[in-house]
Design brief:
By secondary structure, this protein is an alpha+beta fold. It has four domains: 4-103 and 128-246, no CATH class; 306-387, no CATH class; 396-607, Rossmann fold, CATH 3.40.50.300; 634-800, 2',3'-cyclic nucleotide 3'-phosphodiesterase superfamily (2',3'-cyclic nucleotide 3'-phosphodiesterase fold), CATH 3.90.1740. The protein is 35% helix and 23% strand. It is built from 22 helices and 28 strands. Strands 24-23-28-25-26-27 form a six-stranded antiparallel β-sheet. A five-stranded mixed β-sheet has the order 7-6-8-9-10. A hairpin with a 2-residue loop joins strand 12 (270-271) and strand 13. Helix 7 crosses helix 8 (331-347), helix 12 crosses helix 18 (586-599) and helix 13 (436-449) crosses helix 14. The longest helix is centred in the first third of the chain and has 19 residues, at 14-32. The protein is globular and about 100 Å long. The N and C termini lie far apart (73 Å). It binds guanosine-5'-diphosphate and magnesium ion (MG). Residues 410-411, 458 line the site of magnesium ion. Keywords: Ligase, tRNA processing.
Length: 802
């Protein structure tokens, strides 16, 4: 009998499952409407094989990219539901929560892993098969699923069916039945998760011979929306009991030990003499807003020699198909491998066909390595020695190549990177005259040669021929330089929003640009922008020229540049950890973006001729405008109010209360502690980290405002009530104009403080306390209503740091 006290256990709540279904469906519906883009979750029904009650199960599947959202009702990857004996919905299969590579998302950046997680850390090899889920239905059927389906697929042996066959073999080896396993899993309310590794069925890159083939049990999850999973000893115990193969776990207590270990193995991609793809690390993590630890996974993926083997496999398939194999990396050894492969294919007539069916891939590779007396990891080490080091050692010679259209934030990010790391930035817009492409490339390479480690090639490169130009020109003379695409992804679905966002930005940018002086000629500018969008050809890493990029960093043009900057920095750090010593802090990133927004002005300005013949000589004007105007950075943004109006409202309010209640107000008046001017603070520099987008928005407005008083707009304010204790007094205010946003919990006007030791910003604490506990004797807080609907006019103002 199972002792549920000794393993994680939780029963299902019918209510919880209905809510989950409701939320999954709602998300899917919102998506189709015009409303705000929601996640989409697709439901597919399957008949359950061999079910006496003729049950069916539904698989719920999110789009892969949706897992990066923060609003999903569950993060289970692999989720199936069915009706129970009471005709209620229940979760039948619950996969792991989707987990990410180190550096792939904010949570998996090492610095966050280090602070948010706790041990024990259980490391398992990232198995290279396909995932199989097993559970028990109420009628006693054992349900076996692959990630998103179950049962046969036409005549094919589906993954699920192959998995099922293996379950039978394992059960048979210990003399147990499917029914028994189904019942056991049902009692535990759990899903068994295993990896199907069987080269006879389907060969992946890494080898599993007959002796090692089978189902490797690696986890047991509780069938509830939250992620609760067994520890590795509990998984092992279950595998032993039920005849599954076991997944090895390395257990470490300290995260630094984990990182050192992984970095060490990553040097070669081999562990215990075996080529591996990576590791999955299981631990507990707490979310930002709570101290509760929950089960959490991340992965660490190796690059080489795994990627080299994959390249060999693809090249061999091209060879068999009579196509020229195309490859960029591991040139010399790949050529040698292909020579060998060609000979072998010629010698063995049946081999090509087998290979196309994914059989014999590993053997061919191993035979080649044996003949050369080499190991994959040796090749990689050798190559690194020849080409200026492993990616993890690279500290220079990197070019960032945007693939973008106008207004995506290329220049903003370039300036921010320059500010953060002193990296180089060559703007195509600053290069004038003839033969711009080679001169552009040369300017970039010159900087690298001067020792600048990274240079951003600031040009749209929207068309493939532009990418081809820079990739080929650099490779010809500087093959050791790494080319990283900053891929501002444009898709048919997002193009409308991208147009809106970039047009708004560029129009707001006004004349502050070398070639595009938007406010002077808006129509022309929109035409030029549209031209780039029309010429935009999406990146296709499978084909040349884009296959030549060493890595691609995907960015979303509609996101704030602050966020894209962080993505670029994090991914570069992930690719080349030695490019910079330490990840910049959020504040440093903020400052760099702010610098790019506020302080930077282009040095030169040249007018492009109207769309006439391109080289209509003589008509090009070069107006060099040395920029001297530099605005001071913002300290805070406020709605400034008329002193007279506020004083009048206060006088009226206190005129009709007892003298005792008005005592503090009189005291402030008599000690000249009433503020000399009144305002509602909208945002202070101190909260730019908690509200980066709002801060950026106000900064932009500030940058664009031509007004000498730094006026950003108008805003009416409704005065509600006066709240005070014996230290400080504030008026609770409401912004009537919805265009403006305030970061304080309660928008307010500080009226005055008892003495200089009490700072005006303490109004926030007073009001928080008032909101929580109310006014009255116990709290020591008083309030006086402001009668009628008192609305005053205010003007939104940027206040500069001194
Ligand atoms: P590029 O054409 O790709 O080089 O784009 P820029 O970096 O010059 O950005 C175009 C305009 O949009 C500039 O005025 C930027 O200050 C502004 N901009 C860039 N990023 C952002 C952002 O995240 N938010 C807002 N509101 N404006 C931005
Ligand atoms: Mg630009």
């Amino acid at each position: 009998m199972v002792d549920l006290g000794k393993i994680p256990y939780q029963g299902q709540s019918f209510q919880e499952v209905s809510t989950l279904i409701e939320n999954l469906t709602k998300g899917a519906q919102k998506d189709s409407g015009k409303a705000k883009k929601a996640f989409s979750c697709k439901r597919t029904a399957f008949e359950v094989q061999n079910s006496s009650a003729k049950l069916s199960v539904s698989s719920w599947r999110f789009q892969d990219w949706d897992y990066k959202r923060r609003d999903l009702p569950t993060y289970a990857r692999g989720l199936f539901m069915a009706k129970n004996e009471k005709d209620q919905n229940e979760i039948s299969i619950r996969g792991y929560d989707k987990f990410f590579n180190t550096g792939e998302v904010h949570e998996t950046e090492w610095r966050n892993i280090k602070t948010r997680t706790k041990g024990p850390y259980e490391l398992s090899l990232k198995e290279n098969g396909c995932i199989i889920f097993i559970s028990g239905l109420h009628d006693g059927t054992l349900l076996v699923c692959s990630k998103h389906s179950t049962g046969p697929r036409g005549d094919e042996v589906s993954h699920a069916v192959a998995g099922e066959r293996w379950v039978d073999r394992h059960l048979k080896s210990i003399g147990r039945t499917r029914e028994q396993l189904a019942k056991e899993l049902r009692v535990r309310n759990a899903t068994a998760v295993a990896e199907l590794c069987d080269d006879e069925f389907e060969e992946h890159i890494l080898a599993y011979d007959t002796e090692n083939a089978g189902l490797y049990l690696h986890g047991i999850n509780i069938n509830i929306p939250e992620f609760v999973t067994y520890s590795s000893p509990q998984v092992h115990a279950f595998a032993d009991e039920w005849g599954f193969r076991k997944t090895d776990f390395l257990v470490m207590e300290d995260i630094n030990e984990v990182k050192n270990f992984l970095d060490g193995v990553a040097e070669t991609g081999a562990y215990n003499g075996r080529d591996v793809e990576g590791f999955v690390v299981r631990c507990k993590a707490r979310s930002n807003d709570s101290n509760k630890y929950t089960d959490w996974f991340f992965k660490y993926k190796f690059e080489e020699p795994y990627l080299m083997y994959r390249q060999w496999r693809e090249c061999t398939k091209s060879l068999i198909a009579g196509k020229a194999p195309r490859f960029k990396k591991h040139q010399k050894i790949t050529e040698e491998y292909l020579m060998y492969a060609k000979q072998m294919l010629a010698k063995n007539s049946g081999m090509a066909k087998e290979y196309q069916l994914n059989h014999g891939i590993i053997k061919l590779r191993d035979d080649f390595l044996k003949e050369k007396n080499l190991k994959g990891s040796d090749i990689i080490r050798q190559e690194y020695a020849e080409t200026g080091g492993a990616p993890e050692d690279r500290s220079k010679n990197v070019i960032l190549v945007p693939i973008a259209t106008i207004g995506c934030g290329k220049t903003t990010i370039a300036i921010a990177l320059q500010q953060l790391f002193n990296w180089g930035h060559i703007q195509n817009d600053n290069i004038q005259g003839k033969a711009r492409p080679p001169r552009f490339t040369k300017a970039i390479l010159d900087l690298l040669e001067e020792g600048v480690p990274v240079v951003l090639a600031d040009r749209n490169n929207a068309a493939k021929h532009e990418r081809k130009q820079i990739l080929e020109d650099v490779a010809r003379t500087h093959p050791h330089v790494r080319m990283i695409a900053l891929n501002f992804v444009h898709t048919t679905e997002t193009i409308g929003k991208i147009r809106r966002v970039t047009q708004d930005r560029v129009i707001a940018r006004g004349d502050n640009h070398q070639t595009i002086q938007a406010s002077s000629d808006q129509k022309k500018v929109l035409g030029i922008m549209e031209g780039f969008i029309q010429r935009y050809e999406p990146l296709d890493s499978d084909k040349l020229p884009d296959a030549d990029f060493d890595a691609v960093i995907d960015l979303d043009p509609t996101k704030e540049s602050r966020q894209n900057l962080e993505t670029v920095v994090a991914e570069l750090h992930n690719l080349y950890p030695k490019l910079f010593i330490e990840m910049p802090s959020a504040e440093e990133l903020d400052d760099a973006i702010r610098f790019a927004f506020c302080d930077y002005k282009p040095d030169i300005r040249h007018n492009i001729p109207d769309r006439g013949p391109k080289n209509s000589r003589g008509n090009q004007q070069h107006t060099l405008t040395q920029n001297t105007k530099k605005k001071k950075p913002l300290e805070y943004v406020s709605v400034a109010l008329s002193k007279k109006e506020i004083d009048a409202a206060l006088d009226t309010a206190f005129a009709s209360v007892s003298s005792n209640k008005a005592k503090f107000y009189r005291q402030l008046q008599q000690t000249r502690r009433i503020q000399p001017e009144f305002h509602v603070t909208l945002i202070h520099r101190a909260s730019k980290q908690s509200h980066p987008e709002l801060w950026a928005k106000y900064n932009d407005l500030h940058e664009q405002s031509g007004s000498a008083e730094n006026k950003l707009g108008d805003c009416k304010v409704l005065l509600e009530r006066v709240v005070f204790d014996d230290r400080i007094m504030a008026v609770v205010a409401r912004l009537v104009d919805e265009n403006w946003e305030c970061t304080n919990k309660i928008a307010h006007v500080t009226v005055g403080t008892r003495g200089p030791e009490v700072k005006p910003k303490e109004s926030n604490e007073l009001l928080a306390k008032w909101l929580a506990d109310g006014s009255g004797e116990e709290t020591g807080i008083s309030e006086v209503a402001i009668q009628g609907r008192t609305v005053v006019n205010g003007w939104v103002k940027g206040n500069l740091s001194r």
